[in-house]
Amino acid sequence: MTELPPIGDPALFIVLMTVLVALGASSVMSGWAERRFPWLGVLVTIVASCGFAWVGSQEGIALDTIPVAFVEILARLIR
Description:
Blueprint: H1 10-33, H2 39-58, H3 65-78
Helix pairs in contact: 1-2, 1-3
């Protein structure tokens, strides 16, 4: 089996996947409350979770990695 390509910018990827998981999960919860099935929310949540698995397999992600990635990206934007 071939290996996945390396991640170019892990901090940016972690921030993007965190935002996508949050949006997807909120869409799933909203659909559940309205008694409908949110296909797009489920798809976004699955894709973002696979992205986290990809980062975790190469970089080793932990709970303290996520806030550090947000601070790093914010520092890049300010600089």
